[in-house]
Design brief:
- There is one protein chain.
- The chain has 408 residues and is of the alpha/beta class.
- The chain folds into 2 domains: 1-237, D-Ala-D-Ala carboxypeptidase C, peptidase S13 (D-tyrosyl-trna(Tyr) Deacylase, Chain: A); 241-407, Beta-lactamase (3-Layer(aba) Sandwich).
- The protein has helices spanning 53-64, 188-202, 239-249, 252-267, 272-285, 309-320, 325-331, 392-407; strands at 6-11, 20-22, 25-28, 69-71, 74-82, 112-118, 128-132, 139-147, 154-158, 165-173, 179-184, 206-207, 211-216, 229-235, 293-294, 306-307, 354-361, 364-372, 378-386.
- The strands form 6 sheets. It has a 5-stranded mixed beta sheet. It has a 3-stranded parallel beta sheet with strand order 2-4-12, covered by helices on one side.
- A hairpin with a 2-residue loop joins strand 17 and strand 18.
- The longest helix has 16 residues, at 252-267.
């Protein structure tokens, strides 16, 4: 749990007496999920700040070394993990949005940008777009029109895989609120490098070359830590802090990164396959039969990922009986208090007494964890619902009623 991630900016040689680096520099990702404005550890309702804060700190460190000019490229290097940004079972539509952001060892701001669509000042005008963080990455074809008061509000978007062309169309009433679209960036390493270049230029540091990337593919040997000259460094908070974020808010990308972090630490290669192998080994060691689960990714966004309720119960019982029980329980959302359960069980006997992880896809709902009864005893439960046709809210209500009955 005390494991930390390291993000570095390196060059082949130190700057000369005039502050010139002769050659390219690399922004090297080490798998840190929290190069962002998120409060770490998790705090419900914590305000967010500058999403590029940590990159700007790296730029400050470089400037403090007296660097004035970089005669080479700025390389975004995420080769610490294998470059396989999406699982095979993710849909193309998943990869457009925040919940399906690509997986990279160089992750900044959860690998998303926010496009806010504001109505124009009068009907027939194009909508006004703002982008946060303000990093040039996508070319946006904006065809969203402002319509009269009370008019239809519908915004659609499209981006082909690997394309940098984003197309928006639809309508927004002139008196309507802005629509915020949380969109995945196509190549996180390039995005991070572009953001760092902007930060360097804002500090008067010239980069003569372009922005490029370094990926490590499945047929290549994994990257090793090198002895390049270190210009700047950021060390993360302990891993346990991010596991809390992952569980509390159900952060898919962070779950994928954790899978690769385990694989890199245990097998020396940060790939999805190696991570799943480690997960399989652990579950079998605690007595879960291999036929009780099948995983295609680390987050569950892949619909080929399957697990039985009894397998989940075995995991819950093992963790409850472990010496890390209190740490484990603290990771889970608490009914009516925080995370994905903050608005569920808010009133009634279950508030504060259900500690459980949610799961949801279209036509899939799940809740697994623990219920603390009035006598202080704990009951492990796992409720998995597949292929339902009614409203998701109705299914959640049924699950919540079951949990309330467990408490009795």
């Amino acid at each position: 749990p005390d494991f930390r991630f390291h993000t570095r900016v390196v060059s082949d040689a130190a700057p000369d007496a005039a502050g010139v680096i002769h050659g390219s520099i690399r922004l090297v990702g080490g798998g840190d999920p929290n190069l962002s404005a998120r409060a770490v550890p998790y705090r419900k309702g914590a305000a967010t700040g500058n999403p590029l804060l940590h990159l700007e700190d790296l730029a400050d460190q470089i400037a403090a070394r007296g660097v004035a000019r970089i005669e080479g490229d700025l390389i975004g290097d995420d080769s610490w993990y294998t470059w396989e940004p999406f699982a095979e079972g993710w849909s193309v539509n998943d990869t457009l949005y925040e919940y399906g952001a690509p997986v990279s060892a160089l992750t900044v701001n959860d690998n998303i940008l926010v496009v806010s669509v504001h109505p124009g000042t009068r009907p027939s005008e194009l909508a006004i777009l703002t982008i946060r963080p303000p990093v040039e990455f996508y070319q946006i074809d904006n065809r969203v029109r402002t319509v009269a008061v009370g008019g239809p509000r519908k915004i659609q978007l499209d981006r082909q895989p690997s394309s940098r062309q984003l197309r928006l169309w639809g309508t927004l009433p002139v008196d309507g609120a802005a629509e915020a679209l949380e969109l995945a960036v196509d190549d996180p390493a390039e995005y991070a490098a572009r953001a760092l270049r902007t930060a360097l230029e804002e500090r008067g540091i010239t980069v003569t070359g372009g922005v490029t990337v370094r990926h490590s593919f499945a047929n290549e040997p994994p990257a090793d830590a090198d002895d390049s000259f270190e210009l700047a460094r950021h060390d993360s908070t302990p891993l346990i802090d991010d596991l809390g974020i992952t569980a509390k808010v159900s952060q898919n990308l962070h779950a994928e990164l954790a899978l690769r972090a385990v694989a890199r630490a245990r097998k020396g290669i940060g790939s999805r396959k190696a991570g799943i192998e480690e997960l399989k080994t652990f579950l079998e060691e605690i007595g879960v039969e291999s036929r009780a689960f099948s995983f295609g990714d680390g987050s569950g966004l892949d619909r080929s990922s399957l697990v039985t309720p009894s397998a989940v119960i075995q995991l819950l019982r093992r963790m409850y009986s472990s010496r890390e029980r209190e740490v484990w329980l603290a990771l889970l959302p608490v009914a009516g208090q925080d995370g994905t359960l903050s608005t569920r069980f808010a009133e009634g006997p279950a508030a504060g007494r259900i500690h459980a992880k949610t799961g949801s896809l279209s036509h899939v709902a799940a809740l697994s964890g623990y219920a603390q009864r009035a006598d202080g005893s704990w009951v492990a439960f796992s409720i998995l619902v597949n292929n339902y046709n009614g409203p998701a809210s109705e299914i959640r209500n049924v699950i919540d009623r079951i949990c309330t009955l467990i408490l009795e």
